Amino acid sequence: MRKKMFKKGSSANWFLGLFVVLFLVVVARTVIGVSGNDSKPDVVATEQQVVVSEKPVVLTFSDVLRRAEDIKSINIRDKDANGVLKDGTKFKAVISYDPEFLTKLSEKGAVVSIDSSQSWVDVLGTWLPIIFTLLIVFWIFRGLRGGASGGLSRTLLAQNPTKVTTGKPKTTFADVAGIDAEKQELMEIVEFLKNKDKFKALGARVPRGVLLSGEPGTGKTLLARAIAGEANVPFFATSGSDFSGIIVGLGVAKIKEMFEMAKRNAPCILFIDEIDAIGQKRSSHSFNDQDREQTLNQLLIEMDGFANETGIIVIGATNRPDMLDTALLRPGRFDRQVQIELPDLAGRDAILNLHAKKFKISPDVQLKDVARGTTGFSGADLENLLNEGALHAVRAGHKSVEQSDLDEARDKILMGPKKNRKMRAEDIKLTAYHEAGHAFVSVIYADVTDPIHKATIVPRGRALGMVQHLPVDDKVSMTIQEVRANLAVAMAGRASEEIFFGADKITTGAEADIDMATRLARYSITTAGLSPKIGLAAVKQVAAFGMRTQLESASEQTAQMVDAEIRSWLDKAHADAVKILTKNKKTVEKLADELLKRETLTGEEIKEIVLGGKKSKPEAKKMVKKRVKKTNAKK
Question: What 3-state DSSP class applies to 212?
């Protein structure tokens, strides 16, 4: 290792040697200065006592001023003064430069001399730092001028190489679930890599680049690996952040190195994750991003430079496609864009069944129900849900992952872990009635809203309780009847507080309900065109950073009408919830009492309490339909 460090011709070695020399010079200068200025005298001379000694005595500046007539000669260098008194005593002192004082000494007969010469330590201490800085600058620019073949770039590239999978990925399309349409879109890439002569025969040109965009965790990287594994070709992976650094020009060198490596191993897949880190839109005002723009320019050149026959397919991944430069998305570069959506109900079920093979799942677990309760979850979220369920099963001492473990894991992900809060008895009771109000109105509107799954008063995160619904299937739109019903369910918690505790006892616990209801009403009125008063004109919402939401391209009169209509919708929903709960106070009280006793009630238990255990299912269903029809007719 030592031989390698001092190898002849190594720029790093002579740079290190020069640094050591400079360090020794600075240390020597410091030691010499300390030894010359801090030596302790054997005798201190004052005006009353002067002792002749071989060593010079130390005089203060005040002593020198008072004893100017006794000074025979004095030699001054900077602030250090050495001299001889008329009685032969040598002295030294630290003085301030004062022309009047020197004139006074000369008039008293003293021989005054000033030493302005520099020692070799002073010369080295002055010039070596300058030379050292110039050498560093020269060394950096010499490496940058060489590009990817230069010494600096070669060293940095060796320390931060492009990530390349060893061998070929074993991931195939069988390992990807829930995005069947996207897989079908990318099968052409696989066919081209396997048999490109079939495309040449018809003159077809396969896209040189494919951009995968979608929410985080939807499987963009997994899908890119699956393409390479399905086609049985090498897979080169890197990320946009790998091309950013403090050294200007390193990103360009990295782009060149990556494409040269891909050309040597064609046909292959070249994958760039988070490509928006280097592919952002260029502008005339981006003076501070010149290095990133140079890297982007090099990427554009490389993607447009190689021929289609090489078999290199560039796949980029991002969750911000709107930020990418248009030159990157033109035909010939990333000329195919595949939007990976969050999985639907069938997709979530397929993903859960795929990941469930890695866990010991109880036969009683219904993954279809888990998929129903995870609307908006990505593939990564679903895998994390199963893992959290397995961890909970271990803590609970279960031999396999049970349905209760997965329910606990879902609640933990959606609302946070359970909170062991010390709550007052009246707060717990108020929470129970609040959630009972939500649950009761949910059952009344069962044919319109999603089926109720459970109600609980166990605190989680910021919530003191919750009522959870499980959709039967994924909805792409809502009718105005569903909007009205959901608004009434949201307002039922506050309505229950008013009915059973009084208007002066309402709390801030309905904050999230009011916020959700306001957003739903505003969307329905300003965007979906469901309000007859506002009409079919879309009044879009714009929210600048740190500012409140405003209505875009709307007059002041229209904005006032929108606010009044939103308040009208919420007031009607609140009045409807109050009317339903007032007519059924005993049933709501019974539901709240059961919540206080058991803390959590399932959907079936809630329906049994609300509809009555003696009622048959057909009779109960008729009662619910009658209630919904009557309520909607009044609106």
Answer: strand
